[in-house]
Amino acid sequence: MFGVVFPDRSFPLDSSAFIQIDPLHWILEMSAESYLEMKQICIFLLNNLTLPPDKALAVYVQSNNSSPFVFCGAVNASRPSALLTLHWPEETSSSSDVPRITYPDATPSPAKIGVSVEDLATLPQVVDAGAQGRIEKLAMKVGENLFNFMQSFCGVDGNRLVVPMDILDRWFIKFRERAKRDPDYLKGFSL
């Protein structure tokens, strides 16, 4: 029905690698020691699967038996594959300053990846936190570049900074010209 790949970590796995709970739900148990290394999953529909247009395969993760399942994303007939970030839930404790007690003989609860067939309309929209963070960092770097440029033309009037009216135009022209001259210049802004 579907397959998954953990980028840089695995070969393709089909749904037979998962434990089928019922006709609409599958679970893949992960080793408790290595699940945090799995940052992404690529899930894809297999060629012979015909998923109705109003249904989707949703992906969830659970870091241990006591944590909730967290929705990561979904694939459907119009989006037959997706690279999803695995947002592993943090283990909860009653207080952050209370040390955790570990028992050497205790086996840690395995983490799980769940896949289920669900109504497409009921699934939440996923915002890729990693992409959002990269966009925010890029915006901060561009803003810092603008601020540093403006600072070199600032004057002081009491407790106000005064800059020339055309400062944004001058900065943008300089920024664009440098990007045209040096293709690696913009790479310095990406993370």
TrEMBL record:
Residues 18-126 form the Hikeshi-like N-terminal domain. Pfam families: Hikeshi-like_C, Hikeshi-like_N. One of its GO terms (cellular component) is nucleus. GO terms for biological process: protein import into nucleus. Signal peptide: none annotated. Residues 135-187 form the Hikeshi-like C-terminal domain. One of its GO terms (molecular function) is nuclear import signal receptor activity. PANTHER family: HIKESHI FAMILY MEMBER, PROTEIN HIKESHI. Belongs to the OPI10 family. This is Uncharacterized protein. It comes from Zostera marina (Eelgrass).
